[in-house]
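Priority: low. Protein: 6-carboxy-5,6,7,8-tetrahydropterin synthase. Input follows.
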Amino acid sequence: MSITVMRQVRFCAGHRLLNHEGKCANLHGHNYIVEFHVTGNDVDELGRVVDFAVINKLFKGWIDENWDHGFILWDQDDNAINALEQVTPNRIYQLPYNPTAENMARYLMREIGPRLIETIKGYDLKLSKVVVWETEKSSATVTCDVSRESADARLQFTNATRSFN
Ligand SMILES: [Zn+2]
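Result:
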């Protein structure tokens, strides 16, 4: 059995999509909503997968420090980065790919989520889904197959055991 809880984090940021065919090539901004879905296999003695405040502190904390009221740009986008660096103060966050909703969700899932989740001691939790809402009509979802991951872990264990025999 698995149980999933979700916390929304809202923030404002600017970006642009390098080489976009239309208006998204211009610097512009969004009121983003990110859903962080956290999955556990059990509840604690109070009946929680994990306290919502704990997830909020971790993920909203990271977003507030890194993305909120900043510009999220592809690290290849020298033109925009150089221009924005002329402004003081500035907050520029460079991604290894274009800052689409898909890539932002992927980045949170792969690069940020695991190390934040690890800091929650005493719980066996996985970040199982990240949804980035760019507008109220447009979102991108990245999911991690939690059951498959534990199956892979079991498989690795089996292979390791076999190699000792
Ligand atoms: Zn946009």
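The pocket of zinc ion is lined by residues 15, 24, 28, 30, 134 (CB under 6 Å). The longest helix spans residues 146-164.
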